[in-house]
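User: Continuing from earlier, I have the next pair ready.

Assistant: Great, send them over.

User: Here they are, in order.

Assistant: Folding the first of the pair now:
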Amino acid sequence: MTDALDGLLHAARQRRAALVVRLRAEGTDCWREFHGTVEGAPGVAVDRYGALLLVQLFRSADPSLEVGHLRAVVAATAGEGDRVVIVDRRGGPAHVAVHGAHADEDFVVHEAGMPALVLARHHGQDPWLFLDLRAGRRRIRELAPGRSVLNLFAYTCTAGLAAACTGAREVW
C-alpha cells in the first residue's frame, strides 16, 4: 500500500497544481494535499500548513501502513524545508501516536493573508485551523466589514478572526 501511495500523492499534487497557484497568489500557504478517502487510500490525509506536512491516519487506514515507511514516502515528495509529522489515530482517541521531530513546534500559516497558529501535536482532530471551513471564512471576510459578528463556530475562533481581520466592528 505504501508504494502505491507514492503514486497517489504525486497524482494528487498534479491535480491541485492550479489551485495551489491561486491559493499562494491570495496569500494562502495551507491546504489539503491528499484526501485518501476520495483519492485511493481511505483513512489517510496529508495537509500542508506552511512548512508542516501533517499526515493523519484514521481508523479506516490500512493497518499494514508502517509509519517509518510512510514518512519516507511523504518526505520524498516534500519540498526543501518541509517538516513531516504523522499523527496515527488508528487505535482510537485513547491511543493517538504522534511521530516526527517537529510535532511540538509552532507553525504560523496564512489563509488569505490572515495568520493562524498551527501545532501538529494537539488535542482534537484539526491542528487549530480547520481547513474545511476555508469557504466559510472567505464568505465571512466578504460580509464582515463594518458589521457586528457573532461567532457560533468557536472551535478555534478562526471564523471570528477572519471577521476581525477584515474590519468587523466587533466580534463576539
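And the other member of the pair:
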Amino acid sequence: GLPQIAEWPDRLAVEGAARDVATLYATARMAAIQRGTRVRIEFGPDSLRAVFEGARDSVFMVRPGPAHRGVAFRASRRIIRVGSGGYGWGAANTTVVLTRGARRTSLIISRLGRLRWRH
C-alpha cells in the first residue's frame, strides 16, 4: 500500500499537466474552427501558447507550462498549426511526453486533429 500512496503526488502532477496541454489544444482547435482561421500552438516547458495567425499575429491564450507543476516536458514538435477546418498542419503524430518520478503520460496529436492519451 505504501508505494502506491507515495506515487500520488507524481500522478496528480502529471495528470494535471496533461490536462493543461489537452485543454489548450482543444480550445485552440475550436477557436480555429469557430473563427475560420489558422492557429499556431506553441508547446514549451514554461508556457503553452495559442496564437491566431494572420497579417498580425494575435496571442489569445497563454498558460503555464508543465514545469510549474514540477513535470518534465518533451515534445516531438514544439510548434504545430491547426487550420480553419480543425486539421493539424505539421502535427502528424506530434507526441508530448510528460514525466515526474515513475509516472509518465504521452499525448499524441494526429494530422486529423485528434488527441489521444497514452498512460
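Worth noting for the second one:
Helices lie at 2-35. The chain has a mean pLDDT of 93.
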